[in-house]
Amino acid sequence: NDPKQMDNIVVGSRNNANIYLHDVARVIDTVEERAQEAYTNGVRGAMIIVQKQSGANSVNIAKQVMNSLPKLQKALPSDVRLGVIMDTSDNITRTINSLTETVLFALLFVVIVVFLFLGRWRATVIICITIPLSLIASFIYLAITGNSLNIISLSSLSIAIGMVVDDAIVVLENVTTHIERGSEPKQAAVHGTNEVAISVTASTLTMFAVFFPLTMITGMTGVLFKQLGWMMCIIMFISLVVSLT
Where are the alpha helices (DSSP H) in 9-129? Predict the structure, then answer.
């Protein structure tokens, strides 16, 4: 540990003479120069970056870190203070909350628009039943695959809400037409559904043709859009089944 002792370390020999460290270098007892410095409110400090592993939930990790700070603070000297400079989970939380509000507003607007065009609350309720049934299927998919409710999944729900009622509207309007012509409700439901079943199925398959290719994307792009593709396909399939039954 003594620089003078290190000066006398033999690093080689030449012409039967030892070559010491002080012959080729200068030994100084000092500290390494800082490559970076961190300051908080003008006071020098130390910065620690907590980075999640791939696949981990950023929001949950941030909560665990925040819950651990009081315990860490107690173990530190009294003149040392812990603080959070940047928390990226805040942006994620705000985005998810914003998308959640968008989904709820979209649901409300769909109900209002359907009622304004049909003019009957009973028909509106029947059609809007397809929305929760279809969305529940998407939540089951998330639970089975182990995915969380994130920006991608909420975006797919927002996109799908306006689409899931299309098939139900077409079927219900055709059934209503048969009832107005004097058919019994049960008979009108069977004949009215059969008449538009092929057309409604073809319309849903066109949506499949748009979103199903997203499920086959690989790489980083696939990580972003594969979940969107599967959720849209599942939601559209369930809405078709519900509208025909």
Answer: 21-24, 58-75, 89-118, 121-128
